[in-house]
Amino acid sequence: MAKVQKDLKYTENHEWAKIEGKTMKVGVTDYAQHAMGDIVYVELPDTGADFRAGEDLCVIESVKGANDVYSPLSGKVTEVNSELEDSPELINSDPYGSWIAEMELSDPSEGDKLLDGEAYEKLCEKLEAEEGE
Amino acid sequence: MIRHVDPIFEKSVPGRKGYSLPPLDIPEEKIESLLPEKFARKTKAELPEVSEVDVVRHFTRLSQLNFGVDEGLYPLGSCTMKYNPKINEDMARLPGFSQIHPLQNPDTVQGALALMHELSAMLAEITGMSAVTLQPAAGAHGELTGIMIIKAYHESRGDSKRTKMIVPDTAHGTNPASCSVAGYDMVEVKSNSRGNVDIPALKEHLSDEIAGIMLTNPNTLGLFEEDILEMARLVHEAGGLLYYDGANANAILGKARPGDMGFDVIHLNLHKSFSTPHGGGGPGSGPVGVCENLAEFLPVPVIGKKGDRFFFDYDRPKSIGRVRSFYGNFGVLVRAYTYIRTMGPDGLRAVSEGAVLNANYAQTALKKDFALPFDRICKHEFVLSGKKQKAESGVTTLDMAKRLIDYGFHPPTIYFPQIVEEAIMVEPPETESREELDAFIGAMKSVAREARENPEIFKDAPCSTIVSRLDETLAARKPVLRWSPEEE
């Protein structure tokens, strides 16, 4: 059963977003890290780069393949978690503690479109039920 | 008895040599007097010091640890690991093909040029295209060449707004990469519940910013894109072009032609569909075919013919230029030519019939043991899922693939295409007999039974190999790419 942190916002593509005013931290969820398997490399975005909501933010490589991470909202990358360069496995062990990028949002009201913890938990339950079929 | 094979560097004994030379009977020159200083190395080369027999045994042993199509079934999905007839090798070794030099006067190598000219025409006929270049060195190189031709076409019309290429979520990983290298942004289009490109989703993406679409047909689920004519119409109406990834051409040889489906540019993998060596035994070859109005953009040189004489035609002002030194991997072309000539049109049709029959036979035999997300008549390959085993006993697709090695088979492609969870992608080519297929099916069923009854044996699988399960995660996170002597 994938863990969901109730106080975060989520996308249907299994990114989490921690939004505080105009700032957002982005990472991938427990469900995502479990589906990807052992993560071997995180190609971090460039600081200063702009992304629209839904655009490819970065790529995570696991033993199974390469996976795109999409930007949950529009904004500019202000900082990246360079710890992931040497220790990509942190995403496996602590997905909600391992943020990938911090972004300054161009339109924080977009955040209303994201899923809340409860809705995302339901999504995971549904997906996990399908897997068992 | 399987013995560990040490790196040849560790077999080195100081002073041991594989030769003995007579005493020098001319004055010895110092290296400094023969070479400019900047070319003389400062450190020792430290090559292994071994005898001839050491070298022969070392590399023979390594070759015995390999697995290839000469040993058994190699059901690697979308790779078409078919048996390569030995007559291909005989023909490629004919002195008129093997003892020539690419810079020789074309008048002295007319036979080689005739072969390339004829092969281009045969591949054009097989695919329904107008002209073919044989230069690209392999499939992904063909893709890049083809996408560059599409780009040259749009640019020649002053149509600079087209910056995006559509790629379905069932595409080969090389497709997005080729788009990106050619300077396009990739737009992904989703598949529908039948495993085909979703037409409404495709329509949403079409605009005057779309340069084209890259498609594999049948796709990587082994399913034929039934709406291809409709897709071609829609993409063409939007001003885009259609690119055909020929990785799965083994399913349609002599049956259906990409040119007739509406594709503008195609590539073939001679090392897949046309029985030339594949994988470590390469090199490959990825000829690109185009429709009539794109022929002027083909790479130079093109093999031309004036009267009875063949020549390298460089006089093509709109060409995208050269994409490969000399004229492609010529030896591979000889092998593919031999294959096509020995098979003939009926033989090639029988290839795709056999490949599709084999895949459906194996799919039907295995669908009770493994989940089959798209339960339809397939083409030359099919995709099972290990999700049932994973949910029931924690045995993953990776575990089962490793275990299959203990049964003497190369594992299928796994975890691809990514839209199928715990994917197991099986392609049993037409060169496999019913007995060989039954042996493979039996092994797969055994693995499924072991996953139910004895899941702990998977932890160390394979156990019949020289090394057991390798730590792929550690290898990817902390790769050791070359041998180096231990620090003293």
Give a verbal description of the structure.
The complex is a heterodimer of chains A (133) and B (488). With 133 residues, chain A is α+β, with helices and mostly antiparallel strands. Chain A has a single domain (18-117), classed as OB fold (Dihydrolipoamide Acetyltransferase, E2P). Helix content of chain A is 23%, strand content 33%. In chain A, the strands form 2 sheets. Chain A has a 6-stranded antiparallel sheet. A 3-stranded antiparallel sheet of chain A has the order 4-6-7. Chain B contains 16 helices and 12 strands. With 488 residues, chain B is an alpha/beta fold. The two termini of chain B are 33 Å apart. Chain B is 36% helix and 11% strand. The chains are: A alpha+beta (133), B alpha/beta (488). At the A-B interface, loops of A face helix 13 and helix 16 of B.
Topology:
The complex is a heterodimer of chains A (133) and B (488).
Chain A: E1 9-10, E2 15-20, E3 23-28, H1 30-36, E4 39-43, E5 50-51, E6 56-62, E7 66-70, E8 75-80, H2 83-86, H3 90-93, E9 101-105, H4 117-132
Antiparallel strand pairs in A: 1-2, 2-3, 3-9, 4-6, 5-8, 6-7, 8-9
Chain B: H1 31-34, H2 52-64, H3 86-92, H4 95-98, H5 110-127, E1 131-133, H6 139-156, E2 164-168, H7 174-181, E3 185-189, H8 199-205, E4 210-216, H9 228-237, E5 241-246, H10 258-261, E6 265-268, H11 270-273, E7 288-290, E8 302-306, E9 309-313, H12 330-366, E10 382-385, H13 387-393, H14 397-406, E11 413-414, E12 423-426, H15 434-453, H16 472-477
Parallel strand pairs in B: 2-3, 2-4, 4-5, 5-6
Antiparallel strand pairs in B: 1-7, 6-7, 8-9, 10-12, 11-12
Helix pairs in contact in B: 3-12, 5-12, 6-7, 12-15
